[in-house]
Specification:
This protein is of the alpha/beta class.
Length: 357
């Protein structure tokens, strides 16, 4: 795809949080888009209260040679930021503004120049507090007025239609790994892997509950978040200190994929998790709750269970252990299909075709 096919300026706007799926989406996505066209630009809105997470994300952008402009906010509602953004965007006069996440959606929509097309990628909902639910209502209101909303899973697309949001295109998250590895656990003791934010809606507390009655298995937990302390206390109360390892945030999960027998996704809500695509592309079996785009993605591969149900998760874990080799072979066969379907080039081509149209 040549640069002349994307002659209009397009500006993406993003407010990073703890490094996760949306952050990976921006990092790998903007990198490939900027390689295709110099007309793709990125604005990062950094929040003072989460400056540590913001600085980490900026470091990742610099490491990937991604060009960006930076704005900072210190308030929940920053009118001065809206004025600064508006002045900047009026000068740039982009053809399209494309926001990612709730806060970027809010500021980008209010600051956009007149007659500029407004795109928004909806990365999913958490709704774990009343404040977040309120923010999600604002996002829904803006999405109804957007030129185009990008959904990252078919389930999300259907949910958005149910909210009377009509201009929707489906573009599933791309594969973000720079290298493919395969599981190599040779030990007799099975190793389960959890990788994600440690927050209530991710369901890690259910995983600890479910695994407590299964002997001779180990669990590696990657990630940080508000629930980390509670989860560590729960693991201690269940006598799991020797079997559960809290490893903190991992920039590269491939070393852990090599050690694992299966990835566990016990989420209560999801879109299409980036870690799901990464692990599946590497041939790692999946044990996951039936939420968001996961069931459609899995195509009856791996083991699925009902969400928010530790008993169902316990059964899913035991079902996997009874036929571990079958699920490993199934996952290895599935990996080639995922590598091809979720390539960055295909993702970029779909997005640019929408921009052109």
């Amino acid at each position: 795809m040549t640069e002349t096919q994307l002659s209009q300026k397009i500006i993406h706007i993003f407010t990073p949080g703890p490094y996760g799926g949306a952050e990976k989406h921006i990092e790998v996505g903007i990198k490939v888009l900027q390689q295709i066209s110099s007309n793709i630009e990125l604005i990062i809105i950094g929040e003072k209260r989460t400056i540590k997470e913001t600085n980490y994300f900026l470091k990742q952008l610099k490491k990937s040679n991604i060009k960006y402009d930076y704005f900072e906010t210190t308030k929940k509602l920053d009118l001065q930021l809206i004025r600064k953004l508006k002045k900047y965007l009026d000068k740039k006069q982009p053809k399209i503004i494309h926001s990612h996440g709730i806060k970027a959606c809010f500021y980008a929509y209010l600051a956009r120049p007149y007659q500029t097309a407004f795109f928004h990628t909806h990365h999913g909902r958490t709704a774990h507090t009343l404040k977040v639910k309120f923010y999600e209502q604002i996002e829904s209101f803006i999405m109804k007025k957007a030129t185009m909303v990008i959904a990252v899973s078919e389930k999300m697309q259907k949910d958005l239609k149910n909210l009377n949001i009509n201009s929707i295109q489906l573009i599933e998250n791309p594969l973000s790994l720079t290298k493919i590895v395969y599981p190599q656990n040779k030990n007799s003791a099975p190793v389960f892997l959890y990788a994600g934010r440690l927050s209530e809606e991710k369901g890690c507390h259910l995983l600890l509950e479910a695994i407590s009655s299964i002997e001779n298995v180990k669990l590696i937990i990657l990630g940080t978040g508000k629930e980390e302390r509670n989860l560590k206390e729960k693991a201690k109360d269940k006598g799991l200190e020797k079997r559960v390892s809290f490893m903190g945030f991992a920039e590269d999960i491939t070393a852990y994929i090599k050690q694992a027998d299966a990835l566990i996704i016990p989420s209560l809500r999801e879109g299409l998790p980036m870690v799901l695509i990464e692990a599946t592309a590497c041939g790692l079996p999946i044990i996951a709750s039936k939420v968001g785009g996961i069931p459609k993605f899995m195509q009856k591969k791996g083991v699925l269970f009902e969400k928010n149900n530790s008993t169902a998760l316990n059964k899913a874990l035991n079902d996997f252990l009874k036929d571990r080799e079958f699920y490993k072979k199934q996952a290895r066969d599935f990996s080639k299909e995922i590598q091809a379907k979720y390539s960055l080039d295909i993702w970029a081509e779909k997005l640019i075709n929408i921009y052109k149209n």
